[in-house]
Amino acid sequence: MAKRALSETEIDQATILRADKKIKLQDEKTPEPKTAGVPSDTIPLSNNNYTVGWICAITTEYVAAQAFLDETHGEPEHLATNDDNIYTLGKIGKHNIAITVLPHGEYGTASAAAVGTHMRHSFPNIRIGLMVGIGGGAPSRKHDIRLGDIVVSTPRDGKGGVIQYDFGKTIQDQCFRLTGFLDQPPLLLRTAVNALKAKYEVDGHQIEGAINAVFDKRPRLRKNYQRPDPKSDILYLADVVHSASEDESCEHACGPNDSPKIVSRPPRDKEEDNPAIHYGMIASGNQLMKDALIRDKLAAEQDILCFEMEAAGLMNYFPCLVIRGICDYSDSHKNKKWQGFAAMAAAAYAKDLLYRIPPSKVEAEKKITDIISNVQEAVTEVSKEIHNLLHRHHAEEDEEILDWITPVDYTPQQNDFIKRRQPGTGQWLLDSEEFRAWVEGKGQGLFCPGIPGAGKTILAAIVIDDLCAKFQGGSDTCVAFIFCNFRRHHQQKFEDLLASLLKQMIQQQPSVPDDIKQLYGRQKKRRTRFSTDELSRMLQATTKLFSRTFIVIDALDECRKTNGCRKSFVDDLFNLRANYGVNLFTTSRFVPDILDAFKTYTSLEIRAHGDDVRRYLGGCMPQLPAFVHRNPGLQDEIKDGIVDAVDGMFLLAQLYMASLTDKVTKKAIKYALHQFRKQTADQDEDAKLQVLSEAYEQALDRIKAQKTGYRQLGERTLLWIACAKRPLTVSELRHALAVELETDKVDDDNIPETEDMVCACAGLVTVDEESKIIRLVHYTMQEYFSRNRHNLFTEGEESMAKTCVTYLSFSVFSVGPCISDQALESRLEKNLLYDYAARNWGYHAQKPSVSTKKLILKFLTSTNLLSASCQAMLAVKLFTGDTEYARRVPERMTAVHIAAHFGLSNLIRYVAGIYEIDSRNSHGRTPLSVASEHGHNDVVTILLEKEGIDINVKDTTHSRSPLSWAAGNGHSKVCQSLLARDGIEPESRDSGGRTPLSWAAGNGQADVVRLLLRQGGVSPNSKATWWNKGRTPLLQAAANNHELVVKLLVDSERVGCDSMDDDGRTPLSFLAQHGCELISKQLLSRDDVNPDCMDKSGRTPISWAAQYGQQGLVKMLLTNNQVNPNACDSNGFSALTWAAKQGHEMVVRLLLEKKGVLKNSQDADGRTALAWAVKSGHVHIIETLLSQEEVNPNIKDKFGQAPLSWAAQNMRAGSVNRLLDKDGIDPESRDGNGRTTLSWVAGNGDPILTKKLIEMHGVDVNFKDRLGRTPLSWAAENGHQTIVELLLAKECIDAICKDSSDRTPVSWAAKNGHESIVNLLLADDRVAPSPPEFTSSVPSEEQKTAIKGPWVSDWPRSRRSYGGQPSKDMIPEGVGNRATVPRTRSESPPSRRKRRFSTDVVHINRSKPDLSDEHQGFHVVIPRRTSGKYTLDNFEIHRTVGTGSFGRVYIAQSRFNQRFYAIKVWKKSQVVKMKQVTHTNDERRVLSNVKHTFLVWLWGTWQDWRNLYMVMGFVEGGELFSLLRKAGRFPNQVAKFYAAEVILALEYLHSKNFIYRDIKPENILLDRHGHIKLTDFGFAKLVPHKTWTVCGTPDYLAPEVVAGKGYNKSVDWRSSDIKAHPWFEEVNWQRLGTKDIDPPYTPPIAAGRGDASQFDRYPEDNDILGSAEGNDNYLHLFPDF
């Protein structure tokens, strides 16, 4: 492959380009007449006149491209913002072309993507793109590729012509991986390539002649661009690696031309094209392909012809044709001399191609900008958007919680679906009025039904993608989605669906909400999960964290109906929409009960849109025979015919297209199209489904017509996919198909390839690329197979059972179960079918033949094989971080247990004679218990016939009987069989006091409840004694919203309808919460039910109904005279307060209409309903409450805040406006801190509200809060210039008033660096030009020092005397004596009394920890600048105090102020050689932007021709490492002190989004008093989100750094709240941050300032500071020094 090393000529050319770029930029600033030196054959054209974009990677390619222009134009008339590309404009034939090149020294996909993006922004009318240049060939027996040949990217087998790959390493024998197939070049270019190919086959090409013609015009190009001597075209054997020395020639290092290491190739004869042109796949990656072995492997597997580095980045941002001239063989050998000719050959071909394309055809193409804006080409970017939206930064604990909520992730499915989208598909839906109204409104519902195969799922994915694009990065908008799938019912129970929505919502928050963390902490100990009730509540609470929430549910008709799952899910979704403003988008088939449920929703039917089908068919054309490719008219006829035939059913288009692949004549295709139209003419949905069935039958016929091998592979693949009990991954299916009966392991040579499996199935299966699931193309096909299973797969289930049992019987499992979680996980990873086989073999063996029974019995009688299989079958990892789960599996599982588990009634009789029929496993479970739990009534019947069976046996984990298990799971037939036995105990209680009736009622099992209520001896009022203590069956059913069961129990007249659990909750309380109106009405009609009963938290039914927005229940309860609507709970919340807080407007209206309702009721904290509505941001409820005359808007809570103050503080502008418009509002209301509304809005930067307030009568613009601060003071501190201008416009404004800290507004502005505000204030006549204390305008010496740092002399410093006692807890026994040298007055520790400057320009930072001596007062108006003014002559260098890999640190003394500094010196050449340029610049950048008492201080930087210099404060106390080395180890309290100070330093860095990444004792210095200073920021970096760089000191690297999964601030410490760790419980962080706690050790600094005795001595290197001048080759690399 091209090595990208530039020749001297190229470097000169690159220099010229840089110069051109500077000229271009200057011209843009100052337009001047075009100079005569600019080549121009025509007047410059508008950017819109250019329709062809041509991109080059290196200068050689750029020169070749320009050489083939027929004419050149002037400079572009303008460039898009941020476009740094350099363009050559010109014409080839009749095409206007813009040519650009990647920046000098930048290669790879990312750089190409940026260049392509800029080009299409600057030239918006570009319609076709070319990537023309050099590449590395991949010669093979099939493809005789030689140097100078040309490779043109050509789609093949549905792949776009360019594939992307990534390397783990790029040296010999290392691995690679494919990362995706990229989109195809535009159809026009593909057609032109075919036309030119045909011409070349007939007449040959004249490429070399065209190149020579260029040399005739431009002779100077001949030297570097002509064809080299053919003898230099040498192809070495793949295992021959070039010497490590790149300067050594191949002939010398690898052997001469006649060496046996060389591949012998005959010369091309005169009849052959030379250079030859090859058409096929090009592989593109971010690293050079330099390994011949990998080249050959990838070329063989993917039929690759060429390797290069840019196209992969370009294709998704600038769809183009890739043309590569071959300059090397993608190996370690050099062929640089061929680069010029290869570039010329590629450019010549591109020119010839353009001549074959009529301009009118180009104009007819879509603009690339339009394509990019409407299509899902940038799949990688979309994945990133969804990933960023759904996976924001979570600590490890948060990830564990999310996994505990549910391990299911729908994002891979979304990415798979969106990848299949053709450009522009679904735009009709996104542009529809219904969809736009749905997006723009709040609480909207859009129901999109469609016939099977209409494309509902793809359109749902497009909707999700569109929402993610619209709201990406917005933390206040949530997008959650679920793809229902009838094959995933085990993952899509009601609680699973709620959990998935909850998980996605939490992932879009910065961290897991505290209430969920607390619940997780409680339930983790019990190894339980959320109940459905808890999930509903958490979902509602989390929804309120967003201003907008969108939920997309696809294929609701495939959601399971059993146990009321679908109905409960729909009810919860409707509740979220109605009461929480969720926007709900749903797709479904035309199912009556679903249509009825959504009858009030806006409906938009989904049908396969003609344009969408046409786009899809266009993308599939490459799959058809070659004669179709050459006939555009026939292609249009195919599109028209299929679009007409499918009539809204997208799936038919897919099937019809697949059926055309074997048609070899035009007549055959036309006949097929006629049949398609005939089949679907004027048919209803049922008839179309029949057409689908016929299409499936035809596809099966095509499979059967294949050769034997492919036929068998296709049939077995379809069998497994159709009959598997869950979706299979590709790897699982490949292993399944490789299993041979009566073998002991999988033979790797028998594993089929995925492509062959898919191909053999004739278009009926597809592979989801992200999830790696192989599936049928549509669920209607599954329905077809289910209907015809016995005809299609006569012995299918038995075959699968044999395969599974054979797999489970492999000798590798004969060692038995694994002893650890890791061992089990390793077993499952290495044996890919083991998990499926262990969990499902029995379901395939329900009707075994004699031979299958023998195979199964042999397996069951092997103790070790059986135990290993049971472990894989029953082990469940509940959440990430769950441990010992492999050992929680019950032991002593016999063959009878397993037969009972799977319901193998045919086998139970065989194994019953071998094993004890009533044996218990280690959990006390018998086969009868297991069979009862799983509902296998046939097995239960057989077991009950056996003598000695204990029908009431209880397990040892929960004490549940077989009847309890059956009842809880709703197995009514099993319950009947058990209840029919004498001696059954129907009231059997488990360890939690729950009976079978309790379990059945709590789980909503209505049939079982009926059965048990008819049974004698069953108490309907039994109470649970542990979990949900005190709940009766009725309470269990009511709590879980099982309305039918509640009615059954109430109608039985045997239950206590007003019973209470231990929390005081009644059935009516739960029913009111869930909104069950009918049964609630029935209960309210009973005399024994108290409608106003309070639970232990003081809540009544109306309180619960109001909180959850149950409008009907609230209305019903308000009509009952016994209900007190003003009842308050233990927190003082009334029903009105709950409704206002939760945002239920209709409930609020109902309560306000009720006579006697207290509208100003205050809770325990004094907050009213209005205050809660304001705090929660419910604007409509605020308006409703303010419309009531009785509502008092000025009531303050116990913290002194009125609703207006809450709204202003929380920046809720809409609420503030509405409150200010209320009659009687007090705009001057002050909160507990004395702040007014104006103070808050000014400080928060709202100019509109500020203007409104200062114009209101009675508002005091100079009012001071408890800190003495005015609105102007807050606005100035926070940098709100517009607010400052508004306030200064008031004549009465006090612009110089001082607060209690003696600060003025200008002082606050200066403190935070708001220069423009300082200047604005100083320009005001009311602000004194100099401080009152200084009559002169000349700054004092102290001011000068504060401003200029080490330039001027020092001033005397007052030190603090240690008044008061430091914390005893923080004074451990020192390493030695606290002070080894008597301390003089000037050396005493700093005083608590801080020196103040009474000046508005320079001041002490009083709001942060006290700065060290040399930092005090360094807060000035002028932004801190640290470059360009120092030189080495300004300092006297004393000695070295530290050394590193490419520099050293000196102690130096300023010649100006005689103070001491540390100067860090780097040799530039070493920095560049060690590739530390970025880290060095980062260190300067970080230090320039931080200032903290525990961080080393940067005074300034400079550079000369040899070195970089950094001036820092000198820290006399030496390294903490030296102290630790002397002490051996620190006592606990000493370690705690230093760790705590480090934590404060890191906490500050993290607050600025910097991470440090190099914590170690060597990087921690001690100042003269013993406090720490963090130094050496070489690995520090600005990381707002996440980084992947591996760097740091090896012995101290954090696990996150080397894990390769990205990391953030956790790299510096492992806990998100480390200060709360019990070890730091005694630390007074405030005092520590102000250095108010004495360190445990004081360095023995005897010589005062500049004493370097605590640092080791090093040999001096005088050469590094030499003054001799030289050439500076690296100045441009360090622009900020």
UniProtKB/TrEMBL annotation:
UniProt keyword terms in alphabetical order: ANK repeat, ATP-binding, Kinase, Nucleotide-binding, Repeat, Serine/threonine-protein kinase, Transferase
UniProt xrefs under SUPFAM superfamilies: Ankyrin repeat, P-loop containing nucleoside triphosphate hydrolases, Protein kinase-like (PK-like), Purine and uridine phosphorylases
Segments forming a coiled coil: none
Chain residue ranges for the region called Disordered: 249-270, 1331-1398
Gene Ontology BP, a term: nucleoside metabolic process
Residue ranges occupied by any AGC-kinase C-terminal domain in the UniProt entry: 1625-1681
Source species, domain of life: Eukaryota
SMART domains: ANK, S_TK_X, S_TKc
InterPro entries in UniProt: AGC-kinase_C, Ankyrin_rpt, Ankyrin_rpt-contain_sf, GPIID_WHD, Kinase-like_dom_sf, NPHP3-like_N, Nucleoside_phosphorylase_sf, P-loop_NTPase
UniProt entry tagged with the keyword Signal: no
Domain named Protein kinase: residues: 1435-1681
Pfam families for this protein: Ank (PF00023), Ank_2 (PF12796), NPHP3_N (PF24883), Pkinase (PF00069), WHD_GPIID (PF22939)
ANK repeat residues: 923-956, 992-1016, 1165-1198, 1267-1288
Binding site for ATP: K1464
Example of a GO MF term: protein serine/threonine kinase activity
PANTHER family according to UniProt: ANKYRIN REPEAT CONTAINING (PTHR24173), ANKYRIN REPEAT DOMAIN-CONTAINING PROTEIN 16 (PTHR24173:SF74)
Protein name: Uncharacterized protein
Source organism of this protein record: Clonostachys chloroleuca
